[in-house]
Amino acid sequence: MPTKEGIDLDSIAYFNEKFIPLREASLNLMTHAFQYGTGIFEGIKGYWNPDEKQLYIFRLKEHYERLSRNSRLIRLELNKSVDELCQLTLELMKRNNPSCDMYIRPNVYKSGIIVGPSLINKNGSNPTALSICTLPMGEYVDISKGLHVCVSSWTRVEDNAIPPRGKIQGSYVNTALAKTDALLNGFDDSIVLSRDGHVCEGSAMNIFIVRNGKLITTQVSDNILEGITRDSVIELTKKELNLDVVERQIDRTELYTCDEIFFCGTAAQVSPVTMIDHRPVGNGKVGPISKQLQDIYFDVVKGKNPKYKKWCTPVF
């Protein structure tokens, strides 16, 4: 029964078509995905509601729909339906029996023991495998205060190189470089630009800015992850705050002149940004729209807002 952050090697994972202790779920050193990063992953969050003694998994089906769709990008042959993946995840969570917020990490990957980067599964030489593991997760970043971030010198990989919308394992070296340099330079995180200098997203999360009472976010064609939290924020903004949401290119200088900025994502949730490149965002405090959306979001994911209960899958 995990109750705090950290990886419990005695927790149960789904690996090689069975439920086994995480410490026994091991890959061969020559596994194709380990050698070449040829896999797709998802990040899914489960929220513990202590009043109901219930764990709600946020938008479980939508995450697996994205996983299934993105698997086609690198010729992964996923043999499970979305409904089957949902049921496997619920069974796994019941076996681990958590009473805290949880992070769920499914991976679909090339499991061949071969040398060579080809994605072709010739005569069964490079099959596809599935794993799912879970761990307790609190706050990925400190959302109680505004973040101080920088614009990274590392640009986001292009759709025609390694598609950022794919959550491809190997592409997260790009994220690692941007995040690590930001931390080493005293920032909380970073914002990455496209090759032509337009804003893409955070190191591993989508981005919104507020200008003149309008919420603005980058387009899905701007080399970003097509975020499920992003989609949720857009819907909540329109329905709960009755505000316009504009999807368009964002210039770097808009980051320095806008009224508010926040990141969003499964791990980032709704994370306000109050400083960027040593410049205050707006008045340098968490903005009112960011705070409203943060409060609304946490009620929704914990199953407290009946209008959005459809997004919350109960485990128990």
Q: What structural class do you assign from the helix and strand content?
A: alpha+beta
Beta fraction: 25-35%
Rg, rounded, reads 20 Å
Count of alpha and pi helical runs: 7
Which homologous superfamily in CATH is the superfamily of the largest domain?
D-amino Acid Aminotransferase, subunit A, domain 2
CATH class of the largest domain reads: Alpha Beta
Shape: globular
**At CATH's second level, what is the architecture of the largest domain?**
Alpha-Beta Barrel
H/E element sequence: EEHEEEHHEEEHEEEEHEHEEEHE
Uncertain segments are: none
CATH fold topology of the largest domain = D-amino Acid Aminotransferase, Chain A, domain 2
Number of structural units classed as domains: 2
The pLDDT mean sits at 96
The proportion of residues forming helix, as a percent range, comes to 10-25%
Measured between the Cα atoms of the first and last residue, the distance is: 14 Å
By DSSP, the count of extended strands is 17
Quaternary structure annotation: single chain
Main sheet overview: 9 strands, mixed
Short characterization:
This protein has 316 residues and is α+β, with helices and mostly antiparallel strands.
SSE topology sketch:
Layout: E1 12-15, E2 18-21, H1 32-36, E3 39-41, E4 44-49, E5 54-58, H2 60-71, H3 82-96, E6 102-110, E7 128-136, E8 147-151, H4 172-184, E9 189-193, E10 199-202, E11 206-211, E12 214-217, H5 228-240, E13 245-247, H6 252-257, E14 260-265, E15 269-276, E16 279-280, H7 288-301, E17 312-314
Helix pairs in contact: 2-3
